From TrEMBL:
Metallo-beta-lactamase domain residues: 28-237
SUPFAM superfamilies per UniProt: Metallo-hydrolase/oxidoreductase
Any Pfam family: Lactamase_B
Protein name: MBL fold metallo-hydrolase
Domain of life: Bacteria
Organism: Bacillus changyiensis
Segments passing through the bilayer: none
Amino acid sequence: MMKMPLTSVKSGVMEEYANGVYGLTIQIVNVYFIFNRDSREVVLIDAGMPKSASFILDEAERQFGDFKLKAIVLTHGHFDHVGALRELLDTSSVPVFAHPKELPYLTNKSDYPPAKPQIKDGLVAKLSPLFPRHSIDISANVKPLPEDGSVPFLNGWKWLETPGHTPGHISLFRQSDRTLIAGDAVTTVEQESLFEVVIQKQELNGPPAYFTMDFMEAADSIRKLAELQPASLLTGHGVPMTGANFSQELFDLSNRLPVS
Ligand SMILES: [Zn+2]
Ligand SMILES: [Zn+2]
């Protein structure tokens, strides 16, 4: 059998997709760094795959030089978004912010439901039952995001509820240049197909289907994102899309999500 790596061609290349917003691909998932040039402070959005903490920190140092990690904000608690979290917190014990409804999955109180491998028959979907869905426990560091929609340490950014993929999934939006960090609310690659994960074909798609808990909610969340008229669409999976108004594409996508 041909051996295919579960990685993307862009793994390890850090790029600035919007002013001060840098993306880094770790195997199959993206993390984002929001860097403040004046204070040299970094807020990390999501925490990548297991065992990638030193990779994340080394790449950040290579890009920013001296920097101070101030906080981590989670779009949600799936294993590919919290994989390096424990190790990162061992290095610097910073606050981790998440939606209150996501906290049970981050404090060892609930596990996510099993994946739905029946949804698509791509190889990643077939492998997905093997992906860990067990809760981690970062009780000592995790805090609920502020109720007023502000994001700690990130002036000009707002967080918004975009449930469906998970109950407490959030997205982050900066109005000044309409930068959207969408987590797994949408993807820019057909996540169920390993081939497209490897070549990272750029195409707007719904949330990774086999882990999405509620498609009706997910479609509503995509409509909410469409209303923001984002000019950059920085997703948890796939190559970020920039330099357009993605509103219509998002509305179209919300209308063709499978309803289950
Ligand atoms: Zn996810
Ligand atoms: Zn994901």
